[in-house]
# Entry
Amino acid sequence: MDVVRTPDERFAELPGYPFPPHYADIDDGDGGSLRVHYLDEGPRDAAPVLLMHGEPSWSYLYRTMIPVLVEAGHRCIAPDLVGFGRSDKPTERGDYTYARHVAWMAQLVFDRLDLSDATFFGQDWGGLVGLRLVTADPDRFARVVVANTGLPTGDVPPNEAFTAWRTFSLESATFPIGAIIAGGCATKPPPDVVAAYDAPFPDDRFTAGARIFPSLVPTSPDDPAHDDNVAAWEVLRRFDKPFLCAFSDGDPITRGTERVFQREVPGAAGVDHVTIAGGGHFLQEDKGPELAAVIAGFIAGG
# Structure
């Protein structure tokens, strides 16, 4: 497996991102190892909040949420998925599979960090990967919050917005990460923030994971991830711990998916689900402190 690592100087003095890096080595599944980066903020003896990003963002997305959660007394763990942020980046698109992403994060969350009594939050692919972790070991998680995400099995075809995005990711001559994220926000971030989202990706060799991610979403019953996600849904349909949907009101890709969780997950019954007004797909960027306050309030509620 050919791997590139973004130079540290690319991450110097990024606006609003003062957090020191933490690293763990994991097996790459191909006879080698990968270095995975994560943020670890707040008191080490507090129950953790696991914050998982999606596509094509990285832990920078949580920079305005972490201080709010730490102030509320929580430990925040925010990994960079393999291929993103300060984590190592295999250069071949074929090195990335849905199953590998789950296995890579399971090594970090379960084996290296040994998290327990955790609150999970996931958006976009952070949900697709993270909910697989929740369902693989539900006893480690005290509650779940999801936003602008899903757990597709491929039995329902994707909508037009997602199909167009998948085609662009594969065929576009350039893949401007920062501009893509800005386009998924209700309020366009300033230029220095857009540049910060670009920081992990000096050139196209570094974008293989970001480009292939949309193609890994199950879109038909014969998808390699179909059976695993069906099995994960069987666990979710028995998950009776608190489960909150905090979707935004401005995401054309995942709109309506919250109703599936609310209907199917026992822990979602009786919960006061939240709609984040004024948020686009990347609601952490648009409404980070507000979303963090929702999570903190949900934890405080039991």
About this structure: The chain has a mean pLDDT of 97. Residues 3-300 form a domain with the Rossmann fold fold (CATH 3.40.50.1820).
